[in-house]
Structure prediction request, 590 residues.
Amino acid sequence: MMPVTLSLKTQQYIDPDANKIVSSLPVLHSDYQVPDDHIVFLRRFFRSHDTQTLMKIFRKLYMVECRRLSPLTRAVVAIAATVYGNIRGSGHCAQVREMLQILAKPHFQALLYCHDKIASRDFGPQLSEDFGSQDTDDDTTDHVTVIQFIKTSEPLGATLQYNDETGSLQIARIIVGGAADRSGLLHVGDEILEVANKSVRDKTPDEVVQMLGQMSGSISMKIVSGSNRIVTLRESKMRVRAFFDYNPINDVLNPCPDAGLSFCRGDVLHIVSQDDPWWWQAKKEGEISGKTGLIPARQLQERNEIIKRYHSDEDLRSCVGRSSRGTSPCRISPKIPRARRVRKTMYQAQHSGGTPELYRREYDLDEIPTYEEVELFHPTSGKFRPVVLIGPPGVGRNELKRRITSYAPDTFEEVVPYTSRKKKVHEQESREYHFVPREEMERGIINHRFVEFGEFKGNLYGTSYASIRSVIHSGKICLLSPHTQALKFLRSPEIKPFVLYIKPPPLEVLRMTRRQNRAMKTMDGGTTRMLTEEDFTDMLSIGGRIEDKYAHYFDAVIINDDIVKASKQLLAVINELQTKPQWVPLHWTR
Ligand SMILES: Nc1ncnc2c1ncn2[C@@H]1O[C@H](COP(=O)(O)OP(=O)(O)OP(=O)(O)O)[C@@H](O)[C@H]1O
Prediction:
């Protein structure tokens, strides 16, 4: 036999029609004065590998269409369910057991489902049947259908509700990717008449859900798929960061707590469907086989939160009312003298200039923690996100900054603040502070050039946006430890801060570690003294308040118990920040 020599390079496929278009491009150019760059673009486009492949696929599909192949059936899902029901009784035989296992596999069911969809040509956009027709066909008779599907121990993946008009039970929503969705047989709006040959007329939605929950294997349902069937949902790509904790079991409004998804503040969620304006469907980002569940939509959460705040304000008002008569146990922090509280707020964060809309008067919606749309941000070398350390006074933010800066002085840089006070002898311009006249600082404050500012003993102090910007552009990692209120102004597309909360350890550990280290408190004037028991309790209570109000902004949390361990953790977090993609608000990346 003669040896066959195979050519090393397979010849590129040239689609004859694409080729015809390419060869007629010069005519376009000469007869219709189409500019050169358009002709070059069209030539490249029609010769590109992708276009050639697409044309090849189209040609193949067209041939199949011409041969008029038609499916034998459009109901393999139903046939599989019947087969499952029929052979189930003979489960002692190994082949039957294997067959049952195959039929119950979600992947196999999905395959059969796809077959039926393609066989019924149920793909691509479809116009509704009455689109463009003036036909007044009043055949509004509903279809009664008996469907059969295989259910394993997983939930049905649908919620039910009463239809007030018809008095019957209806599918309220289908959970994307759940058993009902995969079967392709149930749709939102379908009325359920019977389950496993039993009428559900007198049953509540909960009773039917319970009934279905206890069933497995082949299940038959008699349904009415009326004319107002709402056809499903395309999966969205939206990702959000949750700004609150949610547990469906504790949510009295959730139409089906079993179908709910619980999550924690800070979790990134993939919003699979927003078809229902009140209840979105979501799964946790990164959980490959995570379940899809119902979560309150943004507007529902805002509404709930406003109602909750209104009621807690009412409670507070009634408490304050009683305290004015001098009998209330609800007075707020009676022990803290006013002078100290004022000193603690020396640094003022900028005030936002937005005018609240009418119904936001009492509660600014920006302050209501719901969801923030996020996108993955890929770090670029040489331009790093500033690291913003947040925490109660005395928790150790300066100590941590000092330690990591001395470990890698060429990597990190702190922002030098501005002040209107006079330079002291030992100080150097732009080392401790940028020293500027008071009028200049005041102008800067009025023109929103400061992220935070404050006044102490008649002198102004502040951190400017320009200083932060200059560290970012220097290629070093900018370290900041601002007042918590400044977060709102730092969180901007330009600065893209990475917010790290430095959390105090429990009281016992806090007391022990700080006493061992003879930890000092720096007072506003720059003098120091030993941290006291009151400082420890203050640190914990202020820390708790910061968490309550701002935890949804934290990108990471480090507990500062052992200072060496905390410094290492901080370095590790910053290292990841330079190398791994991070979820950031969507508007930071656009
Ligand atoms: N893990 C720790 N163990 C023991 N001592 C610590 C620890 N962390 C910080 N300290 C000490 O606690 C004191 C206060 O820390 P530091 O000044 O860094 O707090 P801070 O958060 O910057 O406070 P402020 O915001 O009020 O300036 C310092 O003496 C510091 O050395």
